[in-house]
Design goal:
- The structure is a single chain.
- Helix content is 50%, strand content 8%.
- By secondary structure, it is α+β, with helices and mostly antiparallel strands.
- The strands form three sheets. A four-stranded mixed β-sheet has the order 1-2-7-4. Strands 3-9-8 form a three-stranded antiparallel β-sheet.
- The longest helix has 32 residues.
- The chain starts with a helix and ends with a strand.
Length: 502
């Protein structure tokens, strides 16, 4: 190579570096130019290097930022080169979740329709399809529908009770036990199928549940690549997805629907709701309710229903194992209420258990399964009372985990205190401080169902058993930095044994 060619190559390389540096400088000036404070970004990772390198979970990272900039109403951060606005101010949070929802109706979740057909579900869909599907699916989650299906929850609870007999006096990972129970519940309530997760350790549904939340390198790379570069994911994402998982749920949906139609079976469950909607597909504008789209709705019912409720049950029992006064008081309430129904768990009886309701809410405050609410601007927007304007397509995050552990709203936030959720305490506290189910039109559609199956599971366990900590209990509750839900790194181990009420 001649000297002239070397010079040209060096100049081109320098030009590329200068252009790239200028690009990053311009991008990373997005929040500074708007007067929004925040941590200093670095190339490739933005401000989230510790999240990308699996040193911190998303919830832990946002909590750190919240603590550093807690007095700021909003903080500018970057995921890769993408600007994200984190809101701390409760009035601004209410503004985007409720008052100006029309400008933030998208969650801003990245997915590729071809590579990830099961991602086309109600939780992730863009606002156009979400607006049409949500009112059609809402009837499946009403209190009346839940009351109709309650006998199914009770049948699964009986299975849980029998399963626990073999562990009397043993140390168990109660999170795994709870996940088996909730998998069985979702199986009969969504698919009309017996999943047998409690009886069979090799149940295909339990195995699929584990695969969904796998933290192997392939799953880790898939999530991080979407954060860093969707165009690149569009090209190579097909190599990173779990095709077997998608095929399993699409095939299951198709075969179950065909079987019901051929045998004229009506169960009035979630799948029936989808089948009715497909028959009325002319009411859906501009898109078809395909097998994949239907499977995606069942898929999100499955993953949200079993994982978040299993987390709630196990986290609740962990706190009861560490707080015996709360545990014993709750067991007394359960026994007193069951005496009125001859020992039978009833829908109406659960609704009368006020202390149980407080315990569940305090569990969700301290351990919200989804630790961050995500929204994306669908129009240019100026935040009320400020001069801050953002264009269409900017992500806005609300740090639930941070807000619900903020001592400003919940004094001594690491303590487990169900009295935070008496009617008086709730009325004194500002709105938007408890967001475990979200708020506004795009709140959690399955909140009522998830709460009820969690309560049934806890009642079933505490009716005949009690729990305590053991040597394997991780009382610090270290978080798994690779999981996108709030997940303990070391499981939830407790000692369980049969016990009467003192």
């Amino acid at each position: 190579m001649s000297f002239g060619s070397v010079e040209v190559l060096l100049c081109l390389s320098l030009l590329v570096v200068v252009i790239y540096y200028y690009y990053l400088t311009v991008i990373f000036n997005f929040w500074k130019s708007r007067g929004i404070p925040g941590p200093k970004p670095v190339p490739i990772f933005g401000t989230m290097k510790d999240v990308f390198l699996s040193k911190l979970s998303m919830g832990s990272y946002l909590r750190r930022i919240h603590q550093q900039y807690g007095d700021e109403p909003m903080v500018g951060i970057y995921t890769g080169t993408k600007p994200v606005l984190m809101l701390n101010d409760l009035d601004l949070i209410k503004q985007i979740l409720i008052k100006d929802f029309k400008s933030f109706s998208d969650r801003g979740m990245e997915f590729h329709q071809k590579h990830e057909p099961l991602s086309l579900h109600l939780f992730a869909l863009e606002s156009k399809r979400w607006r049409q599907l949500r009112p059609k699916l809402s009837p499946a989650y009403t209190s009346g529908k839940l009351r109709e299906m309650f006998y199914l929850l009770r049948e699964c609870a009986n299975g849980l009770n029998s399963y626990l007999e073999k562990f009397d006096g043993a140390v168990i990972d109660i999170r795994d036990v709870a996940a088996k129970y909730t998998t069985d519940v979702i199986g009969v309530c969504a698919f009309g199928l017996q999943m047998n997760a409690l009886e069979d350790d090799d149940s295909p549904f339990r195995q699929m549940g584990k695969r969904i939340f796998s933290t192997n390198f392939k799953s880790f790379l898939r999530f991080r690549l979407k954060d860093l570069s969707m165009p690149l994911f569009d090209v190579i994402g097909g190599w990173l997805v779990d095709d077997e998982l998608a095929d399993f749920f699409i095939k299951l949906t198709r075969e179950t629907i065909n079987y019901r139609r051929e045998n004229n079976i009506v169960r009035h469950d979630f799948l029936d709701q989808l089948m009715d909607l497909k028959e009325e597909s002319d009411k859906l504008d501009d898109f078809e309710l395909t097998d994949s789209l239907m499977a995606a709705q069942l898929f999100v019912f499955f993953i949200a229903g079993f994982e978040t409720s299993a987390a709630t049950i196990s986290n609740c029992l962990l706190e009861l194992a560490m707080n015996h006064q709360v545990r014993d008081r709750l067991r007394r309430e359960i026994h007193e209420q069951l005496k009125e129904t001859n020992g039978e768990i009833t829908y109406e009886g659960i609704r009368k258990m006020e202390y149980l309701d407080r315990v569940i809410k305090e569990t969700l405050r301290k351990y919200p399964p989804v630790d961050t609410i995500m929204r994306k601007s669908t129009t240019p927007y100026t935040f009320p009372g400020t001069r801050v304007s953002i264009p269409t397509g900017i992500k806005v995050w609300i740090p639930i985990y941070s807000l619900q552990r903020n001592p400003k709203y919940f004094p001594n936030p690491n303590a487990f205190d169900p009295e935070r959720f008496t009617e008086e305490a709730i009325n004194i506290r500002p709105q938007m401080t408890f967001l475990s189910f979200g708020d506004g039109p795009r709140n959690c559609i399955g909140a009522r169902f998830g709460t009820m199956q969690s309560k049934v599971g806890i009642i079933t366990i505490l009716r005949d058993f009690t729990v305590d900590i053991c040597e394997k209990t991780d009382k610090e509750y270290k978080l798994n930095p690779r999981c996108f839900l709030l997940t303990p790194l070391n499981g939830v181990f407790v000692k369980i044994w049969r016990a009467s009420i003192a």
